[in-house]
Amino acid sequence: MNLMTLVPALLLSPTPAGLAGAQPTPPTALSAIAIDAASGKVLWSKDPDTARFPASTTKIMTGLLLAEHCKPDDVIVAPWDVATVKEASMHLRPKEKVKAKDMLAALMLRSANDGCYAVAVQLAGSVEKFSDMMNERARQIGCTGTHFHNPNGLNDPEHYTTARDLALIGREAMKNPLFASVVKTYKIKIDRNINKKDTWMVNHNKLLPKDATM
Q: Which of 31, 99, 111, 131 is catalytic?
């Protein structure tokens, strides 16, 4: 199966009056879907059931499990081998302690691969067991074309999802108050007990106003 990077969703917004007669630009994503967040009704889709590499959208599931299994002030402790994680962006140090709410901000705003690894080890003991948790939660949500093999989205032949499944996962995640509050925030300052200089997590959602706060 030839898996390509997934661009999971089409963002819909009202058309400005001056552009009412303009021809819309077709989405370039290989797969995409737009759903009604309240009802789950599919409004539009393009090849929504073909397996694709989810890349960092994987972190929606990782973040959801973190939000579901931890209280905001619970502490995540980075494992001793956290520095070996590829493409780390949070620069966690071994045994560094970060509150769950702050780790969630690092996952969703910074796309922290090392943070994902720390969460996986703390919640399940290993990446393999955490992947099992991810797959079980995906089944509970109703996903039928998804298989997770890691918590961060690094490419792997056994790691894939579909636009339809990812929409279901995203919709479920937004029902969680902690998850929703984090992803709706433009900028979050987290507390760290070791790497204290790297504390600002900035949201890259261009539709989010810069004054959006928790």
A: 111
Do 107 and 116 touch, CB atoms closer than 8 A? yes
Residue 155, CA distances (Å) to 12, 53, 168, 186 in order: 28, 7, 21, 28
pTM for the full predicted model: 0.89
Domains of the chain, by residue range, sit at 23-202
Whether 126 is catalytic is no
CATH fit for domain 23-202, picks 3.40.710.10, 3.50.50.60, 2.30.40.10, 3.40.50.720: 3.40.710.10
Asked if 59 is an active-site residue, the reply is: yes
71 part of the active site: no
36-71 pLDDT, tens digit per residue, is 999 999 999 999 999 999 999 999 999 999 999 999
